[in-house]
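ARCHIVE RECORD
Type: protein–small molecule complex
Small molecule: FE(4)-NI(1)-S(4) cluster
Source of inputs: curated submission
Record status: active
Notes field left blank by submitter.
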Amino acid sequence: MAKDKRTIDDLTIWDDAKMMIRKAQKDGVETVWDRLEQQEPHCPFCEKGLTCKKCVMGPCRISSKKPRGVCGADADLTVARNFGRFVAAGAASHSDHGRDLVETLHAIGRGQTSDYEVRDQAKLKRIAQEIGVEAADKSIQELALAVAESMIQDFGFQHNHLGFLSRVPQKRKDLWKKLGITPRGIDRDIVEMMHRTHMGVDSDAVSLCLNSARLCLGDGWGGSMIGTEVSDIIFGTPTPRAGKVNLGVLKTDQINILVHGHSPIVSEMLLSAVNDPEIKKEVQAAGAGGINVAGLCCTGNEVLMRQGIPMAGNHLMTELAIITGAVELILVDYQCIMPSLVQVADCYHTRFVSTSDKARFTGAEHVEFNYTNARSQALKLVRMAIENYGRRNQARVDIPQGSVELMTGFSNEAILGALGGTPGPLIEAIKAGQVRGAVGIVGCNNPKLKHDYVHTTLAEELIKKDILVLVTGCATVAMGKAGLMMPASADKAGQGLKAVCQSLSIPPVLHVGSCVDNSRILHLCSVLANALGVDISDLPVAASAPEWYSEKAAAIGLYAVASGVYTHLGLPPNITGSETVTNLALGGLEELVGACFAVEPDPFKAAQLIDARISVKRKALGLGD
Ligand code: XCC
Ligand code: SF4
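STRUCTURE (tokenized, with ligand):
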């Protein structure tokens, strides 16, 4: 039966989005929601993970009538192999992003770049110590080289273990060892999954799932953590600052440049080019009031956290931002960049420019960035935008008015700093029940769900129950637009959390960064667990990806669970065709790693599930519920 057609009010909770969806219809521009409608109904075999196209004896579709593929693979094996490759791609994405940062640090260490430098020298020294790199007598440049070289080892053929496993509580490390899921090399475990899932290699669903967990741990405690920490070393560790969010951050009388993707390497350089005195003169000469850089998705999170650059929107806002007609240039690096943006940009005067050879877009302009040419390429990009300003058709411009203020910059250093340098006061607040627990709300948007409804409702429900929320990725934009990232929103929290927020002048929803920065949450969990002498799975914490869509989000979910963090998903991955895999995800993992997944699209019910989990963990620690 065909579903009822959704109205614009069913698609999103935001006025700026609704206004731009209407404009898209008027301007004849297709959006993600139009294409979802075209694609529905989706193939039920694929939705359940029961399609296999791993060889040309197939493709095979497993069903009760035809329970085995040509090679003999059953439903369990088919689902497990598909899921293994799904998370391998997610982990590869984060980790390859981390690799780019390490390469940049390596170039700094070898004196091969004058465009990048170590902005946070103290952090470089701290990280060196944590990963076992001797700092004595080394200059900053020498230390950058030594840290980069140690991290390069983490990617490859590992004989010891990943450097950041030094952060993991001993009980967790022992458990991983017992289960045989201690991550080895970041790349190694990803490649091994590609091998295992070839026809005729690992043909046991449970074994595949455990090894999926292993490669995801290499992402969370390896690739992503390296991405975060090296970004801080090179571009500075975030500190609390003010920011703004929604399409109202675009300016009618200025040259608007959007930065989109995930890596700060290009966007940070663009920011420095925008402030070049020569550029300022050229902007004046073009008759513009200035250059306005705004972020999208996780590149947006990176520059918001460190520089307070305004955030135009999350995943489902990326097309809509261009539809304002006010964007001179959209600059992308990689990941989560809908290929449709090239066509949307074509409908306006907007120039779409890719910057990384690994992320080419048919029909786009390309300006390749690397550490030897970054500054000059950034200047070139800014000039492309200035030159394009004259082509803007003001009659087609419509920018939703009014942006929302938020607070950002809550790195672990900033959080612990606000507490006086130790986790002690937070632990006391948790013990006293003022802060009953903490939940990381992370991840994407998905057009199958009402845009940002699950994010914002879940966060509001949790803070009412005195549960602190940490937010990353596209969820950040939702919370920001809902006003939950300002200290005043402590009024919406329960009495205990409200008092804590007011005494520290912080909001009850703290922005900790981009998708790779979920590693900050892992790190904070390990700091708390180590301080209490318990395992991460003993903490009153949880994670949630309410509106996720990507392979990366699935990898994050799995490393969270394998690290001992109960994880809620707003919709299931494509695994429901296997009872074995589904039962493992929703329950069996609990016995193995002390945490599991829960799937629940309703934010009120999800909040209850998380709340019940936190109560159980609190009681087990002797803290009352
Ligand atoms: Fe992508 Fe990171 Fe998801 Fe947003 S949240 S849609 S992965 S940009 Ni990580
Ligand atoms: Fe079919 Fe097996 Fe080939 Fe998959 S690997 S396509 S199930 S024959």
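CURATOR ANNOTATION: The radius of gyration is 24 Å.
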